[in-house]
């Protein structure tokens, strides 16, 4: 299905509202014309936004990559970590501008959702840096280095519909529906729906309509356009020749229909179905192509074996003929009688670059004309044996080809599959550093200055304890609801506070953390002083906990009918996780360690681990280099047949 301009207005407004203060944390290429943006906020749940040549929408699922996207690398280079500043629509056109800003840079991504569609990346001056495909037509040219220009406006703005704009309807000899669709750029589904609800015939010439009918068409159109754009929806999914998501009631239709809880959810469902269907089709054609290639390869290998065997037989025949020469009293290979015997075996003596060769079919074997005939025969027998031996390596290659062919046919019979995973709704605390202590208490900590501030300002309660490391660059950690708290939990949170501080990155052992009560934390600076973002003033006595070692563990835990990664002190992670990896400072960079841990977890629990992205592993780790000291199964056991 294709988006209408009035539908895009609603999507732009809704998405703009939802993504305020979000920044781009990752970009995935789903297909050649579909890109998934992961948007992150320090205090809110992540948002996944899909942009394709069909439209823009928020999605609740993640699709495995179907094919490479040529823009993904460039978009990652330019847009990662930038804030999505604003989203705008060009009039009522099916064009959206997404402005990304940060670090003194600004980029505009243009989504064109008409015709074949396009995705275009521009700088702040609208100079094109990259695009899905170039355009060179009479009315405009789009290419890298040119300035982006939208297509010429065609018709009137559907949002400016008025009595005056309908004046021409009464004077046109065109079918009223055709005039209406062309004038306001509305697709057939809305044209037919407006006329259906207005009680008018869309095929009647405009000049033949009564004033009452024209007024009814006008008021109906105005209401439908406003309802769609402003979100007054009763969403229906219609499945006919093509599937459509209709945000408002457009009258009775003959096709099969079902309801959706929202227009956004309906779009997500239908567009995802389309992407998966296309992916399966590509996989199916790819499987057929692969099977054909392997079958051709197998045939070539069989022919190669046959050819090699024939060559070996022919060379052996020539070698045997030399013994015939010896028994006939011939002493030289260059003797005329010897030449005749060779010719009877389809062989001959030739000279190339001063070297004497025996030519057998397409094989040329170098010989010494001065050597005894039995030595020449021996050379030929060795070559025949060598040729025969080559069949064994071809046979091994054939076995591999047969195995690959069996696998390809098996996959083709089982049908193509495209991985689609529902994006799990995360708990509020998962946007911070978090873990549960061995006593079952929740500990949360800041990741950076912004989340450090949010942890204290939003989540510090009167029954909590707050921790900080005795080092500049330490996060704040909060142990929630910890009246009569055991010493084990206090020590675990103190350990996490130091490990997630600058101490990890610099390998500083022997530091301490301290804890205080909530009322000792002052969220504003003393008079005449300044506090940096994420900092607070601590008053009164501090309770110190010495941390002798720097060790953390990454583990997979069960969360909300799904799984999540957590990182904290080894003992509590072992207790609360399905599998774990203990890490210590120094070693490899975060991305490399994340890959290694994920690989180890795949060996232990493949079904669970493969659903967790590498980004989640990186996000769980402390800043700086790390090394893995131990990997194993945790105390949380899941029956093998259980599927989460």
Overview of this protein structure:
The radius of gyration is 37 Å and the shape is flat. It is of the alpha+beta class. It contains 15 helices and 31 strands. A six-stranded antiparallel beta sheet has the order 20-21-23-22-24-27, sandwiched between helices. Helix 6 (263-327) runs antiparallel to helix 7. A hairpin with a 2-residue loop joins strand 7 (95-102) and strand 8.
- Strand ordering within the main sheet: 20-21-23-22-24-27
**3D shape:** flat
Total beta strand runs: 31
| H/I helix tally | 15
Radius of gyration: 37 Å
Question: Could you name the key traits of this structure?
Answer:
644 residues; alpha+beta; 15 helices; 25% strand
Any chance you could write out the topology, listing elements then pairs?
Elements: H1 5-18, E1 23-31, E2 34-40, E3 47-52, E4 56-58, E5 61-63, H2 72-79, E6 83-89, E7 95-102, E8 105-112, E9 118-123, E10 128-131, E11 135-137, E12 140-142, H3 176-184, H4 188-198, H5 211-230, E13 236-239, E14 243-246, E15 256-259, H6 263-327, H7 336-344, E16 347-352, E17 355-360, E18 363-366, H8 373-414, E19 420-422, E20 433-436, E21 442-445, H9 449-459, E22 465-469, E23 476-479, H10 487-499, H11 502-506, E24 512-516, E25 521-522, E26 537-538, E27 543-546, E28 552-559, E29 562-568, H12 570-576, E30 579-588, H13 590-604, H14 606-609, H15 614-620, E31 626-633
Antiparallel strand pairs: 1-2, 2-3, 3-4, 5-19, 6-7, 7-8, 8-9, 9-10, 11-12, 13-14, 13-15, 16-17, 17-18, 20-21, 21-23, 22-23, 22-24, 24-27, 25-26, 28-29, 28-30, 30-31
Helix pairs in contact: 1-5, 3-4, 4-5, 6-7, 6-8, 13-15
């Amino acid at each position: 299905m294709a988006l209408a301009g009035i539908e895009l207005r609603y999507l732009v407004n809704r998405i703009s509202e939802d993504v305020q203060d979000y920044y781009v944390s990752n970009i995935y290429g789903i297909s050649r014309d579909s890109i998934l943006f992961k948007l992150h906020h320090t205090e809110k749940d992540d948002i996944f936004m899909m942009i394709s040549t069909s439209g823009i929408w928020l999605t609740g699922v993640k699709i495995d990559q179907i094919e490479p996207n040529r823009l993904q690398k460039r978009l990652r280079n330019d847009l990662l970590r930038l804030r999505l500043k604003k989203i705008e629509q060009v009039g009522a056109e099916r064009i959206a501008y997404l402005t990304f800003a940060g670090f003194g840079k600004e980029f505009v991504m243009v989504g064109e959702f008409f015709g074949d569609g396009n995705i275009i990346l521009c700088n702040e001056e609208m100079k094109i840096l990259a695009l899905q495909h170039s355009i060179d037509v009479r009315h405009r040219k789009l290419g890298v280095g040119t300035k982006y220009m939208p297509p010429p406006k065609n018709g009137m703005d559907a949002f400016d519909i008025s009595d005056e704009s309908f004046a021409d309807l009464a004077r046109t000899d065109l079918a009223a529906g055709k005039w209406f669709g062309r004038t306001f750029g509305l697709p057939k589904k809305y044209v037919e729906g407006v006329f259906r609800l207005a009680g008018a015939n869309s095929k009647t010439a405009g000049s033949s309509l009564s004033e009452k009918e024209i007024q009814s068409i006008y008021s109906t159109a105005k209401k439908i356009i406003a309802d769609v754009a402003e979100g007054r929806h009763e969403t229906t999914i219609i499945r006919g020749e093509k599937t459509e998501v209709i945000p408002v009631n457009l009258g009775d239709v003959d096709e099969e229909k079902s309801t959706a809880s929202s227009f956004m959810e309906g779009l997500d469902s239908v567009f995802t179905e389309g992407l998966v269907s296309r992916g399966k089709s590509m996989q199916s054609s790819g499987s057929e192509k692969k099977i054909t290639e392997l079958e051709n390869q197998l045939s070539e290998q069989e022919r190669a074996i046959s050819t090699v065997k024939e060559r070996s037989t022919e060379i052996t025949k020539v070698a045997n003929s030399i013994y015939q020469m010896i028994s006939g009293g011939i002493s030289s290979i260059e003797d005329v009688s010897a030449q005749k015997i060779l010719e009877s075996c389809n062989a001959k003596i030739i000279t190339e670059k001063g070297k004497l060769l025996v030519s057998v079919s397409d094989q040329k074997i170098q010989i010494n004309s001065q050597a005894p005939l039995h030595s020449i025969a021996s050379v030929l027998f060795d070559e025949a044996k060598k040729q025969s031996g080559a069949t064994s390596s071809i046979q091994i290659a054939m076995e591999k080809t047969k195995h690959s062919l069996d696998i390809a046919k098996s996959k083709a019979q089982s049908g193509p599959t495209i991985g689609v995973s529902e994006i799990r709704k995360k708990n509020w605390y998962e946007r911070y550093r978090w873990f549960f202590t061995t006593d079952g208490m929740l500990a949360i900590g800041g990741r950076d200055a912004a989340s450090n501030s949010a942890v204290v300002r939003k989540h510090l309660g009167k029954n909590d304890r707050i921790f900080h490391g005795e080092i500049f660059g330490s996060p704040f950690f909060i142990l929630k609801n910890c009246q009569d708290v055991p010493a084990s939990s206090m020590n675990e949170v103190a350990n996490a506070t130091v490990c997630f501080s600058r101490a990890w990155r610099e390998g500083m052992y022997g530091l301490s953390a301290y804890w205080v009560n909530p009322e000792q934390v002052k969220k504003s600076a003393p008079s005449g002083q300044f506090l940096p973002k994420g900092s607070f003033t601590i008053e009164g006595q501090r309770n110190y906990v010495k941390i002798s070692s720097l060790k953390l563990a990454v583990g997979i835990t069960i969360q909300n009918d799904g799984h999540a990664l957590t990182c904290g002190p080894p003992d509590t992670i072992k207790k609360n996780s399905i599998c774990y990896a203990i890490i210590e400072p120094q070693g490899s960079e975060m991305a490399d360690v994340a890959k290694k841990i994920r690989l180890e977890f795949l060996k232990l629990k493949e079904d669970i681990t493969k659903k967790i992205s590498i980004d989640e592993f990186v996000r769980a780790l402390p800043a700086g280099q790390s090394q893995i000291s131990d990997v194993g199964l945790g105390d949380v056991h899941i029956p093998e047949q259980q599927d989460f």
